[in-house]
């Protein structure tokens, strides 16, 4: 695991922008962390780094938001309201398998709700470390 500290929301956005500028197509990000940990904020930065002009809004109610105007498509999922059986019904694997979708960046909030995982992914754990600081641990997993 690598770790870093993001001292405020601007730092989280900036790290997201870096990821959005550099991650290759077919990257799946599994995001872990409590409500308010900064998962959506990070994905907002990723959207900016990809060159998406539309605001990235939380998919807590829509479950999946798709954005196609950037360097790569961004697929943003939030499984907070789902149990693993329900999460399976939305077929998250179609994003990482790239079946009938253009390969892009898939970012999944509340990834612990997934009943199965992609063959390779970047796992990112965000943790509150005070009012504004967040500790991040991340790791690339290849099966
Ligand atoms: N270092 C930080 N990183 C991310 N968000 C932060 C940070 N410090 C404060 N915040 C605030 O915390 C909230 C995080 O919300 P959000 O990104 O929606 O979290 P989550 O999606 O994990 O529930 C936002 O209001 C954001 O402005
Ligand atoms: Mg969120």
Structural notes for this entry:
The protein has helices at 9-22, 39-50, 84-89, 93-97; strands at 2-6, 27-32, 64-67, 74-78, 105-109, 120-128, 134-142. The longest helix is centred in the first third of the chain and has 14 residues, at 9-22. The protein has four helices and seven strands; from the N terminus they run βαβαββααβββ. It has a single domain, classed as P-loop containing nucleotide triphosphate hydrolases (Rossmann fold, 3-Layer(aba) Sandwich). Helix content is 26%, strand content 30%. The protein has a seven-stranded mixed beta sheet, covered by helices on one side. It is globular, with a radius of gyration of 14 Å. It is an alpha/beta fold and 143 residues long. Helix 1 (9-22) packs across helix 2 (39-50). The protein binds adenosine-5'-diphosphate (ADP) and magnesium ion (MG). Adenosine-5'-diphosphate binds at residues 6, 8-9, 11-12, 33, 35-41, 58, 109, 132-134.
Write a brief caption for the model:
The protein has 143 residues and is an alpha/beta fold. It has helices spanning 9-22, 39-50, 84-89, 93-97, and strands at 2-6, 27-32, 64-67, 74-78, 105-109, 120-128, 134-142. Helices cover 26% and strands 30% of the residues.
């Amino acid at each position: 695991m690598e770790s870093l500290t993001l001292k405020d929301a601007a730092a989280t956005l900036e790290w997201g922008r870096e990821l959005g500028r550099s991650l290759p197509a077919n990257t799946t990000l599994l995001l872990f962390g409590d409500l308010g940990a900064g998962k959506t904020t990070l994905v907002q930065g990723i959207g900016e780094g990809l060159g998406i002009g539309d605001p990235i809004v939380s998919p807590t109610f829509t479950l999946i938001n798709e954005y196609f105007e950037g360097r790569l498509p961004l697929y943003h999922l939030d499984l907070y309201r789902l149990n693993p059986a329900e999460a399976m019904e939305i077929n998250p694997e179609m994003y990482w398998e790239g079946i009938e979708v253009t390969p892009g960046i898939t970012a999944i909030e509340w990834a612990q709700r997934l009943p199965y995982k992609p063959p390779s992914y970047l796992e990112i754990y965000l943790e509150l470390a005070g009012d504004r600081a967040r500790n991040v641990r991340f790791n690339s997993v290849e099966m």
